[in-house]
Design goal:
With about 140 residues, the chain is mainly alpha-helical. The protein contains six helices and no strands. It has one domain. About 65% of the residues lie in helices and about 0% in strands. Helix 3 packs antiparallel against helix 6. It is elongated and about 65 Å long.
C-alpha cells in the first residue's frame, strides 16, 4: 500500500475508530480482486459428472453449488461498494472508485481530469469510508 492514511479527529462528523477506518480502507482495496474473481469464478465450477457412479446420496461436495455461493457473496460485496459510491460520489462515481478501490491519489485523479477540488474529493472519500464502515 505504501501510503499512510490519517485517522480523522473526533471533531469530524465522519470520524471512526482507527480499526474501523483501516478496515474500511482495506475492504475497499479488495474490490478489484473481487471483480476479477467474480469474472473468472464461473469458469472454475464443474458441471455434472457422468463418468461417476450414480448415487442417490453422497458425502462429496457439490462444486457448482460452492461456486454459486461464492459468486453470490462476491456480487453482494461488489454491489454494496458500488451502492455506497453511487450514493456518496454525486456523479463522480468513477473517480471515487479509482481513489478508494484502486488506491489512486488526488493528484493522479486530477491528472485524469477529475472535475472537483481537493476539499470536495476528500470529504466524499471520508463519507464513503464512514458509510462503508457502518455496513461491514
Amino acid at each position: 500500500m505504501g501510503k499512510k492514511y490519517r485517522i480523522l479527529s473526533d471533531k469530524n462528523k465522519y470520524s471512526l475508530p482507527k480499526e474501523d477506518y483501516l478496515t474500511a480502507i482495506h475492504y475497499s482495496l479488495r474490490y478489484p480482486m473481487w471483480v476479477e474473481e467474480l469474472r473468472t469464478a464461473a469458469d472454475t465450477g464443474s458441471a455434472i459428472r457422468y463418468d461417476r457412479d450414480k448415487v442417490q446420496t453422497s458425502n462429496s461436495s457439490d462444486p457448482t453449488y460452492e461456486v454459486a455461493i461464492r459468486m453470490a457473496d462476491l456480487q453482494g460485496r461488489i454491489d454494496m461498494v458500488d451502492e455506497i459510491i453511487k450514493e456518496v460520489a454525486q456523479g463522480m462515481d468513477s473517480f471515487l472508485r479509482l481513489g478508494v478501490c484502486h488506491g489512486l491519489t488526488f493528484e493522479q485523479l486530477k491528472a485524469k481530469n477529475m472535475p472537483c477540488e481537493r476539499d470536495k474529493y476528500y470529504n466524499m472519500r471520508r463519507r464513503y469510508y464512514y458509510e462503508l464502515a457502518q455496513k461491514i
